[in-house]
Amino acid sequence: PPKKKDIRDYNDADMARLLEQWEKDDDIEEGDLPEHKRPPAPIDFSKIDPGKPESILKLTKKGKTLMMFVTVSGNPTEKETEEITSLWQGSLFNANYDVQRFIVGSNRAIFMLRDGGYAWEIKDFLINQERCADVTLEGQVYPGKGADGNEKVKNKTKPEKTKKKKDAEKKSDGIKEDNRATNQKEEL
Question: Looking at the domain assignment, is residue 83 inside a domain?
Fold first, then answer.
């Protein structure tokens, strides 16, 4: 049995153990639990459209926190980005979407959603905005109305690593590379 200590002699570890003992017997409602301790929502497989992979993601992200990156087109200052994304957040709030916004660069913002099931509806709203260059959601980049011609690639994924680009450049030079030793000598 643990020794009895005076409460004034408790350190952080003792306080943490005491808190765990108190919480062990508490009846915490399911909605008050942190997200990682909540049981996942049941998925209704009858609503899944096999032709649309987004429908699967929609159902699996329902009730979970999700973040999407939004890029503002043009060359805005951080203050302009703040104002533009604030308008978007206000419009989403008026449409009853719970969205928090964080500015992460002069032209980038993170939109954090409490319920990831609405992410694709919010993405559709954002890409239809004049100053939206692109929206990144679950690794997919969706070009917006404000994207210039160089950026308009339908659903491009994250850029590949530079190693793959270097390998492609070597192969395009016409030099065949393999791991065998050859008798040919190359002069420098």
Answer: yes
What does the pLDDT look like over 74-126, one tens digit per residue? 889 999 999 999 999 999 999 998 899 999 989 999 999 988 888 888 999 99
**CA–CA dist 21, 57 (Å, integer):** 38
The number of folded domains in the chain is: 1
Contact 57, 28 (CB under 8 A): no
Owner of token pair 């190359």: 186
- What pTM value is reported for the model? 0.58
Does residue 165 fall inside a structural domain?
A: no
- CATH number of the domain at 118, please: 3.30.70.260
Instruction: For Cα atoms 20, 25, 31, give the angle at the middle one, nearest 5 degrees.
Output: 90
Task: Give the span between the Cα atoms of 83 and 12, in whole angstroms.
Answer: 43
